[in-house]
Amino acid sequence: MRAHGLVVGYRAEDTRRYFKQPRAEIRAGRCVDCKAEVFLNVYGVSAVKERDADVICANCDAREGALVDRELIES
């Protein structure tokens, strides 16, 4: 059984990723909702690996993160 979780990252054009410490400059895959490329910092990448989690962009998470998480858990 897969442990599930979502790790929130940033789209390429999202300037908030440059203000993270360390910067969110590592490509982590595509958003599970909108399929945009998502960038994380090293801590986010570790969280994805440790939890076997999916990535979601900050925009989709703000709009419907709980719904997406529930859908992934139920699938």
- What is the overall number of helices? 2
Question: What is the strand content?
Answer: 25-35%
Which H/E pattern describes the elements?
EEEHEH
The total beta strand count reads: 4
* Spatial strand arrangement across the major sheet: 2-3-1-4
- Alpha-carbon Rg, integer: 12 Å
What are the salient characteristics of this protein?
single chain, 25% strand, four-stranded mixed β-sheet, 75 residues, 4 strands, alpha+beta, globular
Describe this entry's structure for a reader.
The chain has 75 residues and is α+β, with helices and mostly antiparallel strands. The protein has one domain. The chain is built from two helices and four strands. A four-stranded mixed beta sheet has the order 2-3-1-4. Strand 2 and strand 3 form a beta hairpin. The longest helix has 17 residues. The protein is globular. The protein starts with 5 loop residues before the first strand and ends with a helix. The model has no long low-confidence stretch (mean pLDDT 88).
